[in-house]
Amino acid sequence: MPSKPLKKLDKTKTVHVKAHERVIESREYYFICKECNRDVVRESFGGRPLYCERCHPPKPKTQTETKQQKKLPRPVLVQSDTQSKGNRAASG
Fold it and tell me: What domain count does the chain have?
């Protein structure tokens, strides 16, 4: 049995990747909510949603602090061979 064609939606989202731009189209999904067990129609850019907007409303996007403040690598303290030999001779 052939699948039912979905109607074309005009909503698109442009995502900037390092070397190029990608255009993602939204899609309407018909499903049953796992929490309230109702038939739901929901528009999504990603994969198939599991919950309706009433049970799990979309969250606002926020930038995390870890992405804003990138940690630098720790400096490595290296002792030269002459310093380490001199310290051994003085102590022993």
Answer: 1
